[in-house]
From TrEMBL:
Superkingdom as given in the UniProt entry: Bacteria
ABC transporter domain segment(s): 2-238
Keyword DNA damage among UniProt keywords: no
Name recorded for this polypeptide: ATP-binding cassette domain-containing protein
Keywords: ATP-binding, Nucleotide-binding, Transport
Organism: Aquirufa echingensis
Length: 242
């Protein structure tokens, strides 16, 4: 479980996250939605340690990420998988080398062990046949799947996905959603997804947090989303669903 307590972040005196409280459960797809510039990416960056909030706590199964000693921070980082927007693959590495990369940098396993684990993850996303191809030779959807394989190679407890569907056709988007959903359930991962795609939110958002101007304005399930009487959420939905 990940808990956020009063997360406050500002840039040059401009408040971008204003006291965010929430908790994200394991085995569930937790989604963060909201208009452009409302703080979704900043929140994700605060959670994974790219940005440091001025106030608040991020608790990983009770461990305070922002106050923890270096060893604990390292341990928590190793338990995170991140699927970056666009996949963020290394162009000069093969698909297999991309997936193996976290193992190369964070473990002392033998090359055989690392290749075996990376191949297993590629198999999980249906891409073992593409292991020796270069990223430039595969489609956008395949790149996302490679990104997912790399995100799960360290067997994460926490998975962060920033716009996993951006740039994909609707059919491929459904496949990526399904894959993220299956992996979340299979390994009981606490998954956080930032999304602009309402189809995706309705398909898999078991817990949804709606941000507006850096504040959490609404939270609930996808089933309750459309019943909301919060005006700013109604307005957001009307722009998305028409
Ligand atoms: N490093 C930074 N320095 C200064 N301001 C920043 C920085 N990063 C983000 N911001 C500002 O913080 C606000 C929230 O940005 P954020 O990227 O979190 O929005 P978002 O909700 O993810 O938007 P989008 O859906 O368009 O990606 C924006 O006004 C942005 O300009």
């Amino acid at each position: 479980m990940i808990q956020l307590k009063h997360i406050h972040k500002e840039f040059d005196g401009r408040v971008v996250l204003d006291g965010i409280d929430s908790s994200f459960q394991p085995g569930k797809i937790n989604m963060v939605i909201g208009g452009s510039g409302t703080g979704k990416s900043v929140l994700l960056k605060c959670m994974i340690g790219i940005l440091k909030p001025e106030k608040g706590q991020v608790l990983y199964d009770g461990r305070d990420f922002l106050q923890a000693d270096q060893e604990t921070v390292k341990a928590i980082r190793r338990e995170m998988g991140v699927l970056f927007q666009g996949g963020a693959l290394f162009d000069s590495k093969t698909v297999l080398e991309n997936v193996r990369f976290p193992l190369d940098t964070l473990t002392s396993q033998s090359v055989e062990e690392k290749n075996a684990r990376a191949m297993m993850c590629l198999q999980r996303v249906g891409l073992e046949a593409a292991a020796h191809q270069m990223p430039s030779d595969i489609s956008g959807g395949m790149k996302k799947r490679v990104g997912i394989a790399r995100a799960i190679v360290m067997n994460p407890k926490y998975l962060f996905c920033d716009e996993p569907n951006s740039g994909l056709d609707p059919l491929t988007a459904v496949k990526i959603d399904l894959l993220i959903q299956e992996i979340t359930k299979e390994f009981n991962i606490t998954t956080i997804v930032i999304s602009h795609d309402m189809n995706s939110v309705m398909r898999m958002g078991e817990y949804i947090m709606f941000l507006k101007d850096g504040k959490k304005v609404w939270e609930g399930s996808n089933q309750n989303l459309l019943k909301t009487d919060v005006p700013s959420l109604q307005e957001f939905l009307s722009t998305k669903l028409t």
